[in-house]
Amino acid sequence: MVKKIGILTLPPIYNYGNILQIYALQYVINDMGYEAVLINRNPQRNRLSYIKNRISVFVADLLKLRKGYFYSDRNVKLVSLKTRKFIIENIKQTQLCKSNKELYEITKDFHAIIVGSDQVWRVSNDDDICIYFLDPKIFDRKILRISYAASFGVDRWLGNSVQTKKCINLLKNFAGISVREKSGVDICKKMFGIDAIQVIDPTLLLDCSVYKNILSGISVDKRISRKDIMCYILDNSSMKKLIIDEISRILQCEYYYFLPKQKSSLYDNVKMKNCMYPSVEEWIYSFYSSPFIITDSFHGCVFSIIFNKSFWVIANPQRGLSRITSLLTMFGLQDRLISSPKEIVLEKIRKEINWHKVNRIKEQLREKGREYLSQRINTTI
Prior knowledge:
- Keywords: Glycosyltransferase, Transferase.
- Its EC number is 2.4.-.-.
- InterPro entries: Polysacch_pyruvyl_Trfase.
- It comes from Phocaeicola dorei.
- This is Polysaccharide pyruvyl transferase family protein.
- By secondary structure, the protein is an alpha/beta fold.
- The chain has 2 domains: 4-205 and 363-377, Rossmann fold, CATH 3.40.50; 220-355, Rossmann fold (3-Layer(aba) Sandwich), CATH 3.40.50.
- The chain has helices at 16-31, 47-62, 73-79, 81-90, 100-107, 161-171, 182-192, 208-214, 238-251, 280-289, 298-306, 321-330, 346-350, 355-377, and strands at residues 4-8, 35-38, 112-115, 144-150, 176-179, 197-198, 229-232, 255-257, 292-295, 310-314, 337-338.
- Strand 10 (310-314), helix 12 and strand 11 form a beta-alpha-beta unit.
- The chain is globular and about 60 Å long.
C-alpha cells in the first residue's frame, strides 16, 4: 500500500508562490513513490487579528503610506477564480477540515505530515501555533513529523515566552527540521536549542521543463513573445517606480506590470471582475517569456532564477527582507538587490549573470533537498 504523506501549509487562494510551492512539493513526493495530499483547512479567522488587520490597512491608506487592499470574504472566491482552477486541477487535497477534530480524523492514518514551505512559522502574540508545530492534541502521535523549508518570514522569532516554551516541546517530536532561510537556522538554535538545516524552496526542486509543461494550458492568443520588462511588484511605491523607470531607461525597454487590472480597497466600490488575479499559467508564462524581470517578491526572484532571466529585486522590508537576502546569498546573486534609486548604475544593470555557476549551485541544492525528504520520510518512528 502506498504511504500517504500530508502537506500542511498556508491555505492556497491567489498567492502564486504559495500555490506553486505546494504543487512542487507534491510533485517531488509523488515522484518518490508516495501519495502526497494537501491538508485542506478552513482556519477559523482570529477575530482580534481580523480587526487589527482591517484597521492597519485603513489607517495606512488614509495616511498614504501605501495603498491598502482588503478583500471581503464574499469577494475572495471571485478574485481567485482563475488561480483556484489551477489548484483544483493540479493539487490533490483532503476533504475540507473545519475543526481540529476533523483534522485529527482525516490525517490519523497518514504515514507523515510535512510542514512547509512558506511562512508557516511566522507567528504573532495572538496566534495559535499548535497547528503548524503539529501538536499531538491535533495530530496523532504516531504520525511522522517533518518540516521542509519552513519559514519564519523575518529574521527574528515573533512568538512570546509561552509560545516559545510550547514550540521547544513540540519540535522534539519532529523527525527532521529544515528551514528556508539562514536566519531560520539561527532562530531554531537560539530560541529552541535545535539544529535545523537550510534547504531550498520546493519550487526550486523542479526542473524548468516541468513548469514549461504547465504552459500548455495557455491559449495561443496569450502566448506573446515579449521584449520588454516584466514588473511583478507586490507593494507599489513612488520609490519603486523611480527604480523601474531608471532601469527601463538604461535598458531602453518598455515595461509592464503583472497584476490584476484593479485592486479593491476598503472603501472603493469597484467591479470585482477587474480585481481578478490572472491564472497561474499566465503568471509562469510572464517569467518564461520576458527577457528582464523587476520584482519585490521572493517567488518573483525564484522564478527568475528557474528560467535564467536577468532580474533585479527591489528591497521590500515590510514583507521580510531576510527571505530574499538569504535566497540571493545562496546563489551568489547579492548584487541583484536594489534598495534605492541611488544604487542604480550602468555597470550594475548591464552586468550579466553567470548562469552556468548559478545552475550548478541549483543542482547541488536540489539534490540536497530531495535527499533530505527521502531520508526523513523513511525514518523509523
